[in-house]
Amino acid sequence: MRVDPGAPRGLDALQTLLTTARELVDGLVTDPQLGRIVRAFSMLPECDREPILKVLEKDAAWRRIVEETAGATGIMCCVISIPIDKHFL
Questions:
Q1: What is the pTM of this model?
Q2: Longest dimension (CA), the chain
Q3: I need a surface site. Which of 8, 33, 76, 81 has the fewest CB within 10 A?
Q4: Angle in degrees, CA 4, 8, 30, rounded to 5
Q5: In a domain, 42, yes or no
Q6: 76 in a structural domain
Q7: Is residue 2 in a domain?
Q8: pLDDT digits (tens, 9 = 90+) for 31-77
Q9: How many domains, in total, are found in the chain?
Q10: Contact 40, 46 (CB under 8 A)
Q11: Of 52, 26, 24, 58, which is closest to residue 38 (Cα–Cα)?
Q12: How many Cα atoms occupy the beta-carbon half-sphere of 34 within 13 Å?
């Protein structure tokens, strides 16, 4: 295993890890939408969760790609507001 000579060692590495973990937890705890999506997701039948998760992951990936390449491509990503009940008609 290679050791990065610039990487923190011992207690410094532990302190960095704990600080990073605390920042991550703080971000998750203070995000009101995260709680909502977890509650809604947990109410879905287990067999429906995987396809819904795949759609969300694919959409997130494409949005990131579009945002990162917008300067070169001129393509912009925008949200189209569609009432949720129309998805089930």
A1: 0.54
A2: 60
A3: 81
A4: 120
A5: yes
A6: yes
A7: no
A8: 989 989 999 999 999 999 999 999 989 988 988 888 888 888 887 77
A9: 1
A10: no
A11: 52
A12: 8
